[in-house]
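Collaborator request, handled under Task 6.
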Amino acid sequence: MTKRQIAHLTIEAETPLKVGSANSDFLQDSPIQKDWNRLPMILGTSIAGVLRKDFEGNDDEIFGKDEGSKVIFSNALLIDEHHQVNEELLLEKSDFLRLFDNLPIREHTAITDKGVAKEHSKFDEEVVYKGSRFKFSLEMLDNEIAFKQLLELLESPSFRLGGGSTKGFGKFKVLAVSTTTITTPEQLAKYSSSLNSKLFQYHKVDLSTTIYPKNHTTYTLKIKPDDFFMFGSGFGDEEVDQTPVYEKIIDYNKKDLSDKQILLPASSIKGALAHRTAFHFNYLNELYIGNNEARKVITELFGEAKNSKD
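Structure tokens returned to the collaborator:
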């Protein structure tokens, strides 16, 4: 039989995660993808797409084009407080899993060149808590070099899952990797596809090699306020009229949420940088009101909303 390599991977969100379901409901514009237990889930196709983009080599041969894919990714399921995933329907959720019934909502709006909110541009996104852990499997037909490269890509500093990767979402770290190789029909018969089962004759993998994606350039920007930062939530409380944005983090050690923490949204920082870049580009190139050349350059660098008309 053809040799198969199998890996089980446990990952933890270092930033909030946005895995949209492409649906909307009465409560939010963009709810996240959920499994049969209404728990956050990452589709295996999303993981495959990210790895294919940065794969060095013949990605059509590995991921499939005219022929089928040689690598299979399971869906990444949420890990509970007992370090297990729930692959069957739950009759009742634990207190820990019920924490994921009400997830953080990120508010967004577009800003005009005058620094005010653009009309009819407000929308919101549901995100998964920072600190959430997921587990998934990777199975591949005999190709040890490509198999190891895929595992190493998961350790890349630029590895992101889900949407909003350019505005602070989707960064993960690998907590654990275990692998095994199936070489005989007897081993295949004993193998269980459950993510909760331990791989027989497995060994942990050391992913100490850092692999950067194609054409990767890193810039680090450190900012310090002259006086203070003000990232308003749009709401007040019993003490002040305008409060900062707060968000909580899931804590597996405490099996609970953390205290609320002040949040500086990456989209706010990115928006301010985009407007300042546009101003200086216009000034240096003598581009004035009515000329859209500056906008084209900024869009290539910072991106824009899908289906944006102006």
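The cover message to the collaborator said: "The first helix runs from residue 44 to 54. Helices lie at 44-54, 59-63, 95-98, 144-153, 185-190, 266-284, 293-302. Please let us know whether this matches your experimental observations."
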